Known about the structure:
The protein is of the alpha+beta class. It is built from six helices and seven strands; from the N terminus they run H-E-E-H-H-E-E-E-H-H-H-E-E. The chain has helices at residues 7-20, 34-44, 49-64, 108-116, 119-128, 142-155, and strands at 23-26, 29-32, 68-73, 79-86, 101-103, 159-161, 169-171. It has a three-stranded antiparallel sheet. A two-stranded antiparallel ribbon has the order 1-2. A two-stranded antiparallel sheet has the order 6-7. A hairpin with a 2-residue loop joins strand 1 (23-26) and strand 2. The longest helix is centred in the N-terminal third of the chain and has 16 residues, at 49-64. It starts with 6 loop residues before the first helix and ends with a strand.
Amino acid sequence: xxxxxxPTSLLGLLRGLVDQGYVGRDGRAYRLGPESYLLxxxxxxxxxxxxxxxxxxxxxxxxxxxxxxxxxxxxxxxxMIYSEFVSGTNPIRYEPVIGERHNLHTGAGGRLxxxxxxxxxxxxxxxxxxxxxxxxxTVTDPDVLREVIAAAQRDQFTATFxxxxxxxxxxx
Length: 172
């Protein structure tokens, strides 16, 4: 919906929201940033996000035969934590351990989160953590990861193939 306010009046507000991570900028367009989702989670309070997501995860697993899962950003913003999953029907499948942490740079969910971070925060992550290997396929070159993050921002999704768990693929 359109606001009855001059764009110049809103620009300062938007800049502040971008700086704090509540809004992300994509060229000339704005979108919700990761802090907005954390705020929504705190507003939901006692509601279990996994329970809320479970019907959508079940529908996805039924449609694809694959395990579908929900990971949430850790409070230190350096990892994703498996919080819910629905097993697929394929005889060969990956089932995450609820509560297990995985580094942002190794999994599809974490990489998409990095793409949603304000650029300065993604850079701080890449510069401030040891980009450890989970498998021989894990990308640990910061320049390659910057390209992966840029592609996720552009494409609005990302995928990993055996980078977080050997033999497992993930899409987010």
